[in-house]
Amino acid sequence: MTSDAFKVTALLIFAIVWWIGYSKINAFNAKADRAIFFSMRPMDYWGEIIQPAAAIVYVAGAAILLAWPIAATWNSPRFWRLIKMIATGTAVGFLIFLLWPLNIRRPEFDGHLFGESLMQAVFAVDDAANCFPSFHCFFAVLGALVIQQNVTSKIWLAIAWLIACGVLISTITTGQHYLVDVLGGSILAFLCVRLFE
Fold it and tell me: Most buried of 100, 114, 120, 168 (most Cβ within 10 A)?
């Protein structure tokens, strides 16, 4: 098996195992006898910030900042270091989910706009648990940090961090997370990068 084929196979297996683990923990933590909620959500303080347009950044931004670092490190030993960072962040995040099953009551989107339909698709495959740490924030910050280590262009670096900041903000403006979840996911990303420097 060629190196590229091996990497593709490893990524596919990792992604499948990751999604199965995440989904099982999410469904388990969403049960009424486990779910923990904060009494106030960001949308309870600033209801006007919740809008579905941010769903595009929420979904696409996180996907870009997951795929871009993989592409940037593909032909270097840094690829496997990236996988170790993601695996470590996943193990820590999943353990926290099990110890602290934080849930959030999501806003209702009626599906008349593209962003609302996109969020409804997210809701269909993702229970409202597994809030802290936010994996959207983890992947966004981790991706920007890895890009920072692998590009010399200030323009590309600025784009990476602009997308990352957009994802962090969108986790709140789509009603998906508490502020502490954003902080938790971001700190976890910094720690994983620092661990494997």
Answer: 168
- Rounded CA-CA distance 16/187 in Å is 25
Q: Where are the domains of the chain?
A: 3-195
Taking CA atoms, 182 is separated from 31, 137, 150, 170, 185, in Å, by: 23, 6, 24, 10, 5
Q: Are 85 and 192 in contact (CB under 8 A)?
A: yes
75-114 pLDDT tens trace? 999 999 999 999 999 999 999 999 999 999 998 877 778 8
pLDDT at 1: 60
In angstroms, the CA 11 to CA 15 distance is 6
Q: What pLDDT does 119 receive?
A: 87
pTM, two decimal places: 0.94
CA distance 52 to 44: 16
Helices (H), 30-134: 42-45, 55-56, 62-73, 78-99, 114-125
CA angle at 128 for the pair 114 and 58, rounded to the nearest 5° = 40
For residue 65, which of 9, 138, 11 has the smallest C-alpha distance? Answer: 138
In three-state secondary structure terms, 103 is strand
